[in-house]
Amino acid sequence: MAEGGKPKRDTYRHGDLRNALIKAGLELAREGGPEAVVLRAATRHAGVVPNAAYRHFADRAALLHAVSQAAMAEAARTMEAEQAALPPADDPVAAARARFRAVGTGYLRFAQEQPGLFRAAFHVPGDMAHAAAETAAGAGGRTPFELLGAALDDLVETGLLPEDRRPGAEFLAWSAVHGLAVLLIDGPLRGLHPTQAQDAGRHVIDMIERGI
Predict the structure, then answer these.
(1) How many CA atoms within 13 Å lie on the side-chain side of 162?
(2) Can you give the C-alpha Rg of the chain in angstroms?
(3) What CA–CA distance (Å, rounded) separates 205 from 177?
(4) N or C: which end of the chain has fewer CB within 10 A?
(5) Residues 6+ apart with CB under 8 A from 43
(6) What does the DSSP assignment read for 8-49?
(7) Using CA atoms, how far apart are residues 208 and 203, in angstroms rounded to an integer?
(8) What are the chain's domains?
(9) Which pLDDT score, from 0 to 100, does residue 15 have?
């Protein structure tokens, strides 16, 4: 029996149990990172018996994979929101530069505001397929990695980034920003004042701009 004397449901109408379990997993990850995402806890949050989860997820790893992609989609939406908040710019060069910087700023903001989801988002298999999955995309249909790639392409189109330096640039930019994000939430920089953390993010993005 569920709380309040109501029986737990072992299925969801309209086939939405899978999404309910992913949503429950996201809430678990939000509070405790990927380690908190377990099938029994997710079914309890969704209000179903534990065995119901196996109709949609073979094991914990399968649920965690789905939650990881959903968390990555949330990261993409944060990055999209950072770009959408940019003031209008008549200069296409300045606009491309601002969009590129917003990708990094949004990524860092997501890591600091949602550390549990950030950890879950990048609790991934050992290949790049996860980073390009449709289920990891934001509202605009792009994943965080694809948003970065698009921003770099804009830099090439506006002449800010030489075309011969474009190949692989996303890996360099991603590595630097992701490294700072991890240091800020799990490493020795986690005690920085928010203003100091923002300054660090700005300086790292400055460094990336100069480097590429």
Answers:
(1) 5
(2) 19
(3) 7
(4) N
(5) 21, 24, 49, 50, 52, 53
(6) PBSS-GGG-HHHHHHHHHHHHHHHH-GGG--HHHHHHHHTB-
(7) 9
(8) 7-211 (1.10.357.10)
(9) 58
- pTM attached to this predicted model: 0.87
Return the SS3 of 159.
coil
Buried b (16+ CB within 10 A) or exposed e, 34-59: bebbbbebbbbbbbbeeebbeebbee
Q: What is the mean pLDDT of residues 28-37?
A: 96
Q: Which residue has the tokens 């949602």?
A: 114
Alpha carbon 71 to chain centroid distance? 5
Listed residue (108, 115, 107) closest to 29, CA to CA: 115
Average pLDDT over residues 32-58: 88
Predicted confidence at residue 122, as pLDDT, reads 87
Instruction: Tell me if 64 sits within 8 A of 121, measured CB to CB.
Output: no
**How far apart are alpha carbons 120 and 115 in whole angstroms?**
9
User: Max CA-CA distance within the chain?
Assistant: 66
Cross-strand bridge partners of residue 48: 9
With beta carbons less than 8 A apart as the criterion, state whether 144 and 105 touch: no
State the average pLDDT over residues 91-99.
96
Alpha carbon distances (Å) from 82 to 104, 144, 148, 191: 9, 12, 13, 24
